[in-house]
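pasting for ref
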Amino acid sequence: MTPSIPRRLFLSGTAAAAAALAAPPATARTASAAPATCELALANRSLPGTVHAYVTGHEQGTGRWLLLRPDGGVYRPDSPAAPMTPLPVDCAIPLGGPGSAPRVLTLPQMFGARVYFVRDGRLDFFLNPGPALVEPAFATPTDPNYHRTWSFCEFTFNPQQLYANISYVDLVTALPIGLTLTGDGTHTVAPLPNGAVDRIAGDLTAQAARDGQPWDRLVTRGGDGRVLRVVSPTQLMAPYFDRPDQMPFRSYFAPYVDAVWAKYRTTDLRIDLQGGRGVRTGRVSGDVLTFTGGHAFTKPASKDVFTCNHGPFANNPGDSDDKKAILARLAAGFNRSILLSHPSQPNGTTTADYYRDAVTNHWSRVVHANSPIGYAFPYDDVRPDGQPDVSGAAHDGNPRRFTVTVGA
């Protein structure tokens, strides 16, 4: 297992990425590089009404923004004269009715990419000088797309492989997305089942009643009362990052963090880097948790735990691979609340051990309880050796057809 890197977390209405989408190493295939293009099939499995898709990302090699056109061509936007200029080209790809034949396009290599779906309407995209594409913002009420029913999956298609994931790091919506990637093998990621978003909303509302924390504020409803989406704690907290005294969940993890720091003043915390890279042992001295090799972590705040990319958990590109690997497993241990019960990480645990403490990432707990697979926080791909991958990802070094479906 290689060091995990956070999926991109959108922390503003302009969809600026705090961390880039990162793909794992390509599958074992040394005969040739990945093809320059592959088929992209977009299909509506079960949704009545009108459904449109959008495909956005950065062109491999140049880094320029590009969008696929509905005629199968590629649109590379020019830099506009002013910020928030409406996208001048209609890139909405219409899909057929429930169970209809997929729309098949040619997908070029691109990274930091997304496939969006929207029901009974279209999405508004904008351009800032650069150009920089301003994508829809699900956590910003002033965004014109806020009250629409839409969702997305993420992918990167580079010279090594095509890697895609259904990420629930930011949100779950009423539009379940599924993936099938065909290449040297066939890789399938199931969508959320019928009713899952309503159950997630209900479970989080019940959790708020139990512990008094604002889990119910993660739920966004439309004017008719239906659940449009449920966002992660990070999205609720993000607008308050410059006002920490008003930030929801600001001290939520503090009791658990204090207990962990107290435990490992007198006990070794052992973290296996996995992949044959050895075990690093940590102890708390003063207010710092230091591992063999000199990798040190100050006490994290709740924001650091939820985002996995602030304070001592900031993912710094210049850090060593060992420190990144420790960070990933430490952050996962806090989110799953298994650091007090298991002094060896991550091996020796199973999913049955996760989220058992009263102070835990209940967003992740509830998402996993209602989904067959999915990525609920930035290091959710950390797993014990021999345990199944439940991160909702598919990758292949020889992709021939990438099918993205919407509907349960």
